[in-house]
Amino acid sequence: MKRLRGPLIALALIGGALTLFWTTTMQAQRHECEVCVAFGPGRNCAKASGPDEAEASRTAHTTACGPLTGSMNDAIACQNRPPVIRRCTTR
Predict the structure, then answer these.
(1) How many domains is the chain partitioned into structurally?
(2) At the N or C end, where does the chain have fewer CB atoms within 10 A?
(3) Does 38 fall in a domain?
């Protein structure tokens, strides 16, 4: 029994740390948005989560623009366009 005590305590501590990390990470991501953008000949959608709706929407918009652009100028132009679809939910 004494040989099992150390590993069991280590497992319990690791499990507790992982649970704490998971809980604090997920609590910060209270909003989720899906944004679809049309730029040039293409269209792309992306989802993102964040602490508030504005941050989740901005991140999804930036992510959706990524595959549609080939330069920094295009990326900026895409991000300045209004989204075709924007759906946000609160968790």
Answers:
(1) 1
(2) N
(3) yes
Residues 66, 25: contact at Cβ < 8 Å?
Answer: no
- Whether 10 maps to a domain, the answer reads no
Tens-binned pLDDT, residue by residue, of the chain (91 aa): 567 777 777 777 788 777 777 666 656 668 999 999 999 999 999 999 998 999 999 999 999 999 999 999 999 999 999 999 999 998 7
9 domain-assigned: no
CA gap 90, 79 in Å, rounded:
23
Alpha carbon distance 43, 89 (integer Å): 22
Amino acid in position 47: K
User: Cα separation of 46 and 35, whole Å?
Assistant: 6
Report DSSP letters for 37-65, one per residue: EEETTEEEEEEEEESSHHHHHHHHHHHHH
